[in-house]
Amino acid sequence: MNRSTLKYFYRGTAPHFLTSMFSFMLIGIYAVIGLNLTFVSPVVEAFRDFDITDICYKMIAEQQSHAITIVDLTDLESRREIAATLRDLESMNPRVIGMDAVFEGVKHDTLGNEMLTEVAREYDNIVFASRIKEDTNGEIRTISSFFTDSVDVAQGVTNIPRSLYNGIKRTLRHSWECNGEKSYSIVDEIVGRYGIQTTYDGITRINYQPTRFDVLQPSDLPASRDLIEGRIILFGAMADEGDMHYTPLGKMAGVELLAYATQTMIEEKAVWKLPMPVHILLSIILVILSEYMIDTYKKWSAKHKSPVVRYFLGSYYVISIWQFLWISFLMWMVLICFTQWNLAMDIGWTVSAIAMLSMGRSLRDSIEGFLRESRKNKSKR
């Protein structure tokens, strides 16, 4: 490549690159201002809760789960009722039962304690819940049901992590280290007993594709064998305000959240993101491409013979419409990538930079004008 070609390439691409970088810079400045002004903090917190998949979930049709059924224990008031319901469920041959409740300590319901212990001893396809709790001194301990000291049962941790800055629960943690022992999540234990060997480790992003899970009350069980046999049964409270969590789909019961996490695992549809370097490079390319398209369009419209048409096509409003259509196209590409490959492409910064291209272009023109004037003044001296 000779020097003239390089010079032509530089002159053709440098303005677009500078405009794009100025657009990113302006977005960064606005973000810093937003983080440091208290009166806009509610808006900042709202954006911290936002993820591009939240839009995707609202655009995807609801599906029906044929592998997972939820049994609601909200109205069961005693351990003996819970134990009796577990026996009723076992009589209908579920593949595995996930018990989303921890039975701490021996209660005054002696018969209920004995019935729960017998159920735990008799059936090996029940995964009981445990919780990881961090004390004020930083010590981590496991809270399990009272009968686990005398009965060898399958247990899984029900803790679902959330972001440091917001309450939206999007991820599943697969394991914890506690007192030198490794504890796995209840979802991993359930999926393993369901017969699916997964390769997930660390943290998995839950796929909240809208799904209708069959929800049964204990009184519905005798007539619902077809919704239990061979399925994963999640036994937990659907209406316990103390076990409600915020998710991309809104407020959700803990047992339903576990249903989405379990479905993500058995269908192997975990949401994934591009590595950060690839994501940054793709964002820069898209913004530069957007600036190049706008510049090419402006040059084309300027060549029209009719002054009225030329003015109309090159107006700010028409260019804004083209930008809107281009951003809409990118959003549809994001949706397609998510529905086809579970790829969450967070293009919020990219879209913001594209929307700021006109200001970036104005800033570039101002700097170039200032430099030209400086060179002229210097040459006159």
Main attributes of the structure:
381 residues; alpha/beta; two-stranded antiparallel ribbon; 13 strands; 50% helix
Please characterize this protein's 3D structure.
It is a single chain. The protein is an alpha/beta fold and 381 residues long. It is 50% helix and 17% strand. A hairpin with a 2-residue loop joins strand 7 (175-178) and strand 8. The longest helix is centred in the N-terminal third of the chain and has 34 residues, at 3-36. The protein is elongated. The protein starts with a helix and ends with a helix.
State the helicity in percent bands: 40-55%
Tell me the number of strands.
13
> What sort of overall outline do the alpha carbons produce when their principal axes are compared?
elongated
What is the succession of H and E elements?
HHHEHEHEEEEEEHEEEEEHHHHHH
What structural category arises from helix and sheet content? Answer: alpha/beta
The largest sheet is:
7 strands, mixed
Quote the beta fraction.
15-25%
Kindly, what is the distance between the CA atoms of the first and last residues, rounded to a whole number of angstroms?
38 Å
pLDDT averaged over residues: 87
Radius of gyration: 29 Å
